[in-house]
Amino acid sequence: MVIRIGIVGVGKIARDQHIPVLDASPDFDLVTAASRHGRIEHGVTHTTIEEMLAAEDIDAVSLCQPPQVRFEAARVAIAAGKHVFLEKPPGATLTEVELLRDQAREKGVTLFASWHSRYAAGVETARAWLADKSLHSVHIEWKEDVRHWHPGQAWIWEAGGMGVFDPGINALSIATAILPGFFLTEGLLEIPANRASPIAADLHFTDAAGTPIRAEFDWRQTGPQTWDIKVETDAGTLLLSKGGSELRIDGVEQTLPPEAEYRGLYDRFAALIAAGESDVDVAPLRHVADAYLRAERRQVEAFED
Ligand code: NAP
Are both 3-113 and 121-257+289-300 of the same fold? Predict the structure, then answer.
């Protein structure tokens, strides 16, 4: 059965990934969208999700807006009996995501909280290699130029937009997939004087074995960009780099499958729908919430786009 799907929020990620991947998928037929400003060339683009749900015969929706407005859209879609794909992060708070999970269960539809970085080419190989190793230390560095990657995105700096955790949560989604459980012991959030969300975070975690795990997220990096996770173990050093797309063990580059992050997400969404299941893992979002609970805050110089 082909799943008829509509996209909500036609912005950067909808155009870069969702639309081309859905066009190439044998499981889905993209037939409509809801967008205030954007348009798609697949049937009618409605102004609101309510209009789209009333007018269209669809099975599923993909919610590609900022996290602050995802809950309301997901709630009405689930109430209308649609399967729902949530872009990352799945919401602006933990509780709203858990309410959606409960609502989807009651309604008998699939809810998928997607974490695209978990589908990066090196992640599964890294997870499998680390599974029987003793960890000595972990160092995560996610440092990028916000002016390059998020030009003019006001929502990302507002409350619930998460600031540097918008990319940082991708690192946390990988770390929570490849490492044993860990928790925050101390941290520092640097927040520009004119913004609600951090521009940098320096986080110290540990696990039950006492492994030091440090994550540095910074949006002020110009020049080469860094999206690395380095794990020192009793059997050598694992380095996942370029957002999980490259993997080296003791400096030796590992052969990996081709890049297929969003194809992997939509294959998973289709499989969940076929099995009548949901996948709502809030572990990466919980670490962000913990950072807001446990870390110190420092005001830093105002940030202008
Ligand atoms: P974006 O380009 O700013 O687009 C978001 C779209 O959501 C807007 O075009 C807008 O479309 C809609 N929208 C609805 N309510 C909005 C509101 N209150 N404020 C702003 N936009 C609103 O953002 P994006 O980069 O696509 O990111 C969207 C989500 O995808 C975020 O959660 C982000 O973390 C995630 N994501 C982004 C990337 C990336 O590379 N950019 C990668 C992976 C995941 P309409 O005019 O159509 O309503």
Answer: no
- DSSP letter, residue 242: G
Say if CB 219 and CB 148 are below 8 A apart. Answer: no
Tell me how far the alpha carbon of residue 26 lies from the centroid of ligand 1, in angstroms.
Answer: 25
Substitution candidate for ligand 1 out of 7, 8, 10, 12 with most atoms within 8 A of CB:
12
Q: For the chain, which residues make up each domain, given as ranges? A: 3-113, 121-257+289-300
CB 178 within 8 A of CB 232: no
Model pLDDT for residues 220-258, shown as the tens digit of each residue: 999 999 999 999 999 999 999 999 999 999 999 999 999
Q: Which atom of ligand 1 is nearest to the CA of 8?
A: 47
Q: Tens of pLDDT along 27-53? A: 999 999 999 999 999 999 999 999 999
Strand order of the β-sheet with 3-8 is: 45-46, 28-34, 3-8, 60-63, 83-86, 111-113
Name the CATH superfamily for 121-257+289-300: Dihydrodipicolinate Reductase; domain 2 (3.30.360.10)
Identify the CATH number of the domain defined by range 3-113: 3.40.50.720
pTM of the model: 0.98
Query: For ligand 1, which residues put their CB under 6 angstroms from it?
Result: 9-13, 35-38, 64-67, 69, 87-88, 116, 153, 155, 166
Q: How far is the CA of 69 from the centre of ligand 1 (A)?
A: 10
